UniProtKB/TrEMBL annotation:
Gene source species: Nocardia iowensis
The Rhodanese domain, residue ranges: 15-107
Alphabetical list of SMART domains matching this protein: RHOD
Name of the protein described by the UniProt record: Rhodanese-like domain-containing protein
Source domain of life: Bacteria
C-alpha cells in the first residue's frame, strides 16, 4: 500500500513549495482543472518520462486523480517507487475533494 497524504498537509506543502504534485488523470482533465502547480504524468508514461519530469529522485512527490475510486494516482505512485523514487505519497481523495473544500484549482495547460 502506498502512503497517503491528507488534504490539509498537501495544501501546506503546496503553499510552502515543498512538494511536486502530479495529476494522473491526463491532459484533457488537466486543462479543465488541476491542483496548483501540478504536472501531468499518466501511468502509461511513467517509465518513459519520469526521469526527465522528476530529475530529483529524493524530492517529495504527491500523486492524485479524481477521487478515492480512481486508481490512477495509486498506480503511478507504485511505478514511481519501483523506479527508485522513495518519497511518493498519494492524495487519495483527489481533485474532487480539493475543489469541494473550496481550495484553488488552476485551468489550462
Amino acid at each position: 500500500m502506498t502512503d497517503v497524504i491528507a488534504r490539509e498537509e498537501l495544501a501546506a506543502a503546496i503553499e510552502a513549495d515543498s512538494v511536486t504534485v502530479l495529476d494522473t488523470l491526463g491532459p484533457g482533465y488537466y486543462e479543465k482543472a488541476h491542483l496548483p502547480g501540478a504536472l501531468v504524468l499518466v501511468e502509461s508514461d511513467v517509465e518513459s518520462t519520469a526521469g526527465q519530469l522528476l530529475p530529483d529522485r529524493d524530492a517529495a512527490i504527491v500523486t492524485y486523480c479524481a477521487n478515492e475510486a480512481c486508481r490512477n494516482s495509486h498506480n503511478v505512485a507504485v511505478k514511481l517507487r519501483a523506479l527508485g523514487y522513495p518519497n511518493v505519497r498519494v492524495y487519495r481523495a483527489g481533485i474532487q475533494d480539493w475543489a469541494e473544500a473550496g481550495l484553488p484549482v488552476e485551468e489550462g495547460a
